[in-house]
TrEMBL record:
General function of this protein: Part of the phosphoribosylformylglycinamidine synthase complex involved in the purines biosynthetic pathway. Catalyzes the ATP-dependent conversion of formylglycinamide ribonucleotide (FGAR) and glutamine to yield formylglycinamidine ribonucleotide (FGAM) and glutamate. The FGAM synthase complex is composed of three subunits. PurQ produces an ammonia molecule by converting glutamine to glutamate. PurL transfers the ammonia molecule to FGAR to form FGAM in an ATP-dependent manner.
Entry keyword annotation includes Cell division: no
The protein, known as: Phosphoribosylformylglycinamidine synthase subunit PurQ
Gene: purQ
Catalytic activity: L-glutamine + H2O = L-glutamate + NH4(+); N(2)-formyl-N(1)-(5-phospho-beta-D-ribosyl)glycinamide + L-glutamine + ATP + H2O = 2-formamido-N(1)-(5-O-phospho-beta-D-ribosyl)acetamidine + L-glutamate + ADP + phosphate + H(+)
Protein source organism: Lutimaribacter saemankumensis
Subunit structure of this chain's protein: Part of the FGAM synthase complex composed of 1 PurL, 1 PurQ and 2 PurS subunits.
Subcellular location: Cytoplasm
Active site: C86, H194, E196
Biological pathway: Purine metabolism; IMP biosynthesis via de novo pathway; 5-amino-1-(5-phospho-D-ribosyl)imidazole from N(2)-formyl-N(1)-(5-phospho-D-ribosyl)glycinamide: step 1/2
Length: 222
């Protein structure tokens, strides 16, 4: 599997994400935000956490209009896989590759801590390494992680089994405790928690490791 990790001014989780992919066995390329194309043969594009462009305007809004996001959209439109984590999730909603929006946390404070997540579906390349209903522990670190979608969108997400994760105890006010959602073709995942920060024993746990290993297995046969 070949992964491309996008890098924007203000990204600070790009290297962590690259290492998680590498340890799972992927070949990883780092791709700068001013590039207009992706490396040949890329299977999955990963949009990392951080504070792209200083989170000016809205979190992820400027990054969504960068040259590389044009290539990201084309990659997704032709059936490619994409993963957005934290600020990357915000970018994916700003590009409209995923529905909904990420708003200021309900308590108006930055939150950085371990949280419990419940796996809502194992029916995706991202979550195939978990069991439906399994509870895992993954860290969050965000100020604007309060997921919002209108009633029609929520019905579609629930009816189509596209809610990937929910918080066990909602830390930020997200509607229906949603922590991660899938695209209609189930090949794009956006989530606020950071699985790359819980991917090896030195991190204090390995609950995020299953996502990267499952991606390796699933994309090998996709």
């Amino acid at each position: 599997m070949r992964a491309a990790v996008l890098v924007f001014p203000g990204s600070n989780c790009d290297r962590d994400l690259a290492v998680a992919f590498e340890k799972a066995g992927a070949r990883v390329s780092m791709v700068w935000h001013k590039d207009t194309g992706l490396p040949e043969g890329v299977d999955i594009v990963a949009v990392p956490g951080g504070f792209s462009y200083g989170d000016y305007l809205r979190c992820g809004a400027i990054a969504a209009n960068s040259p590389i996001c044009g290539a990201l959209k084309k990659h997704v439109e032709r059936g490619g896989f994409a993963l957005g984590i934290c600020n990357g999730f915000q970018v994916l909603t700003e590009t409209r590759l995923l529905p909904g929006a990420l708003r200021r946390n309900a308590n108006l404070k930055y939150i950085c801590k371990l949280v419990g997540l419940r796996v809502e579906t194992a029916d995706s390349a991202f979550t195939a390494g978990y069991e439906q209903g399994q509870e895992i522990t993954i860290p969050i670190a965000h100020h604007d992680g309060n997921y919002y979608a209108d009633d029609e969108t929520l019905r579609a997400l629930n009816d189509q089994d596209r809610v990937a994760f929910r918080y066990v105890e909602n830390p930020n006010g997200s509607v229906e405790s949603i922590a991660g959602v899938l695209s209609e073709n189930r090949r794009v995942l956006g989530m606020m928690p950071h699985p790359e920060r819980m991917a090896e024993p030195s991190h204090g746990g390995t609950d995020g490791q299953a996502m990267f290993r499952a991606l390796m297995d699933q994309l090998a046969t996709a």
